[in-house]
Amino acid sequence: MPNAFELLANDRHSKARRGRLKTAHGLIDTPAFMPIGTQGSVKGVSPRELRELNAQIILGNTYHLFVRPGLDVIKHFGCLHNFMSWDGPILTDSGGYQIFSLAKLRKITEEGVEFQNHIDGARAFISPEIAMEIQAALGSDMAMVLDECVPYPCEYDYAAKSAELTTRWAKRCKAVASAASADSGANALRTAHATARQLVFGIVQGGTFDSLRRQSAQAIVDLDFDGYAIGGVSVGEPEEEMKVAVESAEPFLPTDKPRYAMGLGTPPQLLEMIARGMDMFDCVLPTRLARNGTAFTATGTLNFKNAEFALDKRSIEENCACHACREFTRGYIRHLIKAEEILGLRLITLHNLHFYLNLMNRAQSEIERGTFDQFRKAFVAEYKTRDAITVE
């Protein structure tokens, strides 16, 4: 099977990489940020606007789409691409993180996870096999194996057993994918209306324990997936421990496969993870903070609920080419936020997504020029978080 990932450049002073990933619905230049479309929609933004922002890929949530609208509805429309009118690549997570967040409503066994869904409390069950079948029905370009995400803090013994369970589940996911690839007549694991197969990513776990991260990475890589994700990070641990978790696993990940740091992060975190060899990212911050009136800029965050912006005639960020910055002032956007007008939230959302996507484009260019490390250090030194940011 030909490799879907092409490595184009390496930074001489860090582990930053510039690559390109081929999928059934198009190419993805890396490093790449994936806007989150939890329920088949990036909150407040249309697919047309995403294309105008040059978003190459979005993320869909297996758990939420499984619960609502349900697979029968998605199948009726053909696939998730058709359902939401998005013709670019889609990565779907396995639902493991959402099940992790339902700690009081779920029971984990060797077979899978039994849980009460968050909408009506109905009992449901997801196994590794079912997780892969759901993602096949969604028709995503990239599917994630089912994993168990451990909380922070977490005892070593529990983290070790959890990582071993994740590996066993990954083997079962791999078996489903291999069976589908071997059966040329199978619908499973082939994206709808496309001839290319669905790529499958393994997930490294192990909590904040260096030895467990290394063992998990080795075990998952031995299963030979199309790409590898580092999961269980940004779940409340200190940032330094998050970096160590990535640094522990990275040496064991193949250089010719894409690496995905799940659920990250702030702009400086993204650059730090790129410097540590990661290629793909997703995070709720650009859209979630926009709904709280907070915008991202190269020098940090701006909270438009603050009175200091009431008479400010400047754009959110000078020299920004996004729709919000081209046409509107900080003072007007602040007024919209205070008046609880939806337009204000949408404008900040468009700006924040543009900022994140543009940051990835800049990182790609800096890697190609061999200047990424200088760029990263300068950006991180200048960036200031003016309001507390947490990723949930």
Description:
The protein has 392 residues and is an alpha/beta fold. The strands form four sheets. Strands 4-15-14-13-12-11-7-6-5 form a nine-stranded parallel β-sheet. It has 15 helices and 17 strands. The longest helix is centred in the C-terminal third of the chain and has 28 residues, at 342-369. The protein has helices at 47-52, 62-67, 71-77, 80-84, 96-101, 128-138, 156-182, 210-222, 239-249, 267-275, 285-291, 323-327, 330-338, 342-369, 372-382, and strands at 5-10, 17-23, 26-30, 32-34, 36-37, 58-61, 90-93, 106-108, 113-116, 123-126, 142-144, 199-204, 227-230, 259-261, 280-282, 294-297, 300-303. The radius of gyration is 20 Å and the shape is globular. Helix 7 (156-182) runs parallel beside helix 8, helix 8 (210-222) runs parallel beside helix 9 (239-249) and helix 14 (342-369) runs antiparallel to helix 15.
Cα distance, first to last residue? Answer: 37 Å
Low-confidence stretches: 184-188, 190-195
Which strands sit side by side, in order, in the main sheet? 4-15-14-13-12-11-7-6-5
Helix content: 40-55%
- By DSSP (H or I, 4+ residues per run), the number of helices equals 15
Sheet/helix structural class:
alpha/beta
Summarize the biggest pleated sheet. 9 strands, parallel
* General shape: globular
Integer-rounded radius of gyration? 20 Å
Proportion of strand residues: 15-25%
Features:
nine-stranded parallel sheet, 15 helices
Characterize this entry briefly.
The chain has 392 residues and is an alpha/beta fold.
